[in-house]
Design brief:
Helix content is about 40%, strand content about 15%. The protein is α/β, with parallel strands linked by helices.
């Protein structure tokens, strides 16, 4: 199936955020976009066929989630992640970020403290700030070339700042860490001790590289179900980001009713007809495609790491344990963050994510999306090296 992933699909002119907004985002039209987290691969054929069948019905009226959809979600989570769900545990939402907003609104009051880690996916901070909660940051530490949690800092700040809610990213974006069962248990025990509710964003849970083992946070101890909300979606797994659909898994009845009420206030509990159809097709018939995808991404990642080790041996990078995102350190270039982005855009002609957007701990880092045909990945690596070759030993401010 490698030919399936090697295909270069022309996305220009499709209203693609990734490919048709270069000038608006980077100020130049000729950059190679390897930033936003969608893939340059065709989605699974069963999903395409299900959507064709829906369109062929010729009437796109109101729809609801059928029992067969709930069954596929339950089966997938049971088989892949040992997360045992019932139909009533599943709520739908247009996306993970709207779900985070709904949880913040339902579980905290204005001015109350919400903790996230630094660096982390930037909409976490955006949702806390825009909902007028107090943002509390706990810096991740780099040990053994990977991010680690600072549990002493987390507990101290939870006590000092009276934190009410913790937003966890597992697997971590942008670093690609798959938090271990011990790490998650330590974190959740702290939160349980201090009555802090937890949102666990697990949208990348299917994109884990061997031999790493993903653990859904709520599965680690029965008592965690009373305060942990799990967020998941098929969108990253099967490249369906444009079909707005995600799920909240809430095992505790009281907690679930609070979120349902908040969703009802904003009419946010339904998704579109295409989301229902695509999700069911993906979870029921997409396993083989996903397995082949992970083999292809693993090969891409091996090529990238070999390239950095050979061509850019002094550049620190984190080999991701999950996701299709490489997080690498550009501090050796001696450029401020704005100038760093400008160098990659102007000199490298490549569009990456600026690490500073993920928090102060992300300063001087860049994020590189390698979910693309091998030819594109190799071209992206060449452009990254070009920037380092121009500036190494000649730092500019």
């Amino acid at each position: 199936m490698s030919k399936y992933f090697d295909e270069n699909i022309n996305r220009h002119g499709t209203h693609s955020v990734k490919w048709d907004m270069n000038e608006a985002i980077f100020g130049k039209a000729d950059v190679l976009p390897m930033w936003v987290a969608d893939m340059d691969f065709a989605s699974p054929q069963p999903v395409i066929e299900a959507l064709h069948q829906l369109v062929d019905s010729r009437i796109l009226g109101y729809s609801f989630a059928p029992d067969s959809l709930y069954d596929t979600i339950i089966n997938w989570q049971t088989e892949r992640h040992h997360l045992l769900l019932k139909k009533e545990d599943i709520l739908f939402s247009p996306g993970v970020v709207p779900s985070i907003a709904a949880c913040i609104q339902a579980l905290t009051q204005k001015g109350e403290a919400v903790m996230i880690q630094d660096p982390v996916y930037h909409p976490f901070a955006d949702m806390v700030d825009m909902n007028e909660r107090q943002l509390i940051l706990s810096a991740l530490k780099i040990e053994d070339d990977q991010y680690k949690m600072d549990f002493v800092d987390i507990e101290k700040q939870i006590i000092d700042q009276q934190v009410k809610l913790f937003i966890l990213c597992n697997p971590h974006n942008p670093g690609g860490r798959v938090w271990s069962a011990d790490e998650l248990t330590t974190l959740l025990n702290i939160c349980q001790k201090h009555h802090v509710k937890v949102i666990s964003d697990e949208i990348h849970n299917d994109l884990v590289y061997q031999p790493n083992q993903f653990h859904s946070a709520v599965t680690l101890k029965e008592s965690y179900a009373s305060f942990v909300i799990t967020l998941a979606a098929p969108t990253k797994t099967f490249n369906l980001a444009g079909i707005k659909n995600s799920m909240l898994f809430i095992l505790d009845t009281d907690l679930r009713e609070k979120i349902k009420l908040q969703q009802a206030k904003a009419e946010m509990s339904n998704i579109n007809t295409f989301g229902y159809a695509a999700t069911e097709a993906a979870f029921s018939k997409g396993s083989m495609w996903l397995d082949e995808l992970m083999l292809y991404l693993t090969d891409n990642l091996d090529i990238i790491c070999t390239f950095f080790d050979k061509e850019l041996p002094d550049v620190f990078y984190m080999r991701p344990q999950a996701t299709y995102l490489l997080w690498f350190d550009c501090s050796s270039l001696g450029l401020e963050d704005d100038a760093l982005m400008e160098a990659f855009v102007t000199e490298g002609k490549i569009g990456l994510n600026a690490g500073i957007s993920y928090g102060q701990q992300g300063a001087q880092f860049m994020r590189f999306n390698f979910a693309a045909p091998r030819e594109t990945v190799l071209e992206g690596l060449k452009r990254i090296k070009h920037v380092f070759d121009l500036h190494q030993g000649h730092p500019l401010s």
